[in-house]
Amino acid sequence: MLSLNNKKIILAVSGGIAAYKSALLLRLLIKQGARVQVVMTESAKEFVAPLTFQALSGEIVRSDLFDSAAEAGMGHIELAQWADLMIIAPATANTLAKITHGLADNLLTALCLTSKAPLLIAPAMNQQMWNNTTTQENVTKLSKKQSIFLCGPALGEQACGDSGYGRMEEPQKILQQGIKILENQTISSGLLKDRHILITAGPTIEDIDPVRYVTNRSSGKMGYAIAQAAINEGARVSLVSGPVCIEQPQKVEFYSIRSARQMHETVLKIVASADVFIATAAVADYRPASKRIQKLKKNSENLTIELIKNPDILADVAALANKPVTIGFAAETNDIEAYAIDKLKRKNLDMIAANQVGDAKGFEKDDNELYLFWHKDNEIQSKKLPLADKQILAKQLIEEIALSFTQDINIL
Ligand code: CTP
Q1: Model confidence, pTM
Q2: CATH level 2 (architecture), domain 196-408
């Protein structure tokens, strides 16, 4: 199936040399089944003739805010309401500034104010303009909005001869992000609107010397999928993560840490405002008693490194007087149920999500299965979430958690 079948998209083009790449983006959108209406600013027309976009989209290109011919057919307000998604590519520094401050002096900027559709912005400009503090302030403001998403700019050589961040992201990448935004929109029911979810993810790294460390295996995929699922349900999400090789979900408040102690400190700083704490991180239980400044030399047959215990982040959160709903994870090779229930009680958790690891299960895989255990009426309740892609499991887990808010009774 085409991934954008019958989706209605406004492709808004502002005036930059990258405007020629938007013609390719338009073709890609149409190939995926989208219906596209192109809007151009006056300066965009200096770079590419509207006829190019008209020929590719099969629709008249719109530019004027007050265009009697167009208003007779589809007025600009109707156009704004018609769209499932609006993409601005390229977005110049000028257009970014106007959107940030709510100006509506042309059709493109007016649509940004009138449309409720998510807005995907692909900035493109000279690298100095991109790095300018005013542009950066504007970008920071825009990226905080729930329905605005940024794609790029990319790093590389620019038409003006400069090199740096400022190139418009490749059309294929903009297309992929547009598809993702629309997919997430269709699955959201706003179950966690106005809730703050705090999540730990990935491994922690405990340095032995400048080149060696102790760590746990963890790709971070489960934690990141849970963060995305919570965002899709309208939550404010803080993600405290150790080093991983996956892209952070847009809209998370992201905290990058390295060691268990940094993760502990960061979590305890944020936790007061959290409604739910989900600990998916594979925290190293121990760290070297001391970190050597210089590289350790192999001048003896045996080597003993003293390890000392790290703080238990999950247990410390669960022990807070005003604790959030606290959910732990347990990765077990055997006796899942017994170990998970023991952890649930020992750490005073509201819920534990356990999974089996080993035998090519769990780590670095895209799918998983989860066993949930929680207390209810002095009994342990359980539920199995069967083997599925981690994104599906994350959505199911978030729905289980959301139930505790949307229903009056606290199932956790
Ligand atoms: N956890 C944590 N801080 C730690 C250790 C673990 O927050 N210092 C959290 C993990 O994120 C996970 C849960 O606690 O949610 C795992 O519990 P833990 O007892 O550490 O698991 P194991 O190390 O597997 O324990 P055991 O040695 O008992 O098997």
Answers
A1: 0.78
A2: 3-Layer(aba) Sandwich (3.40)
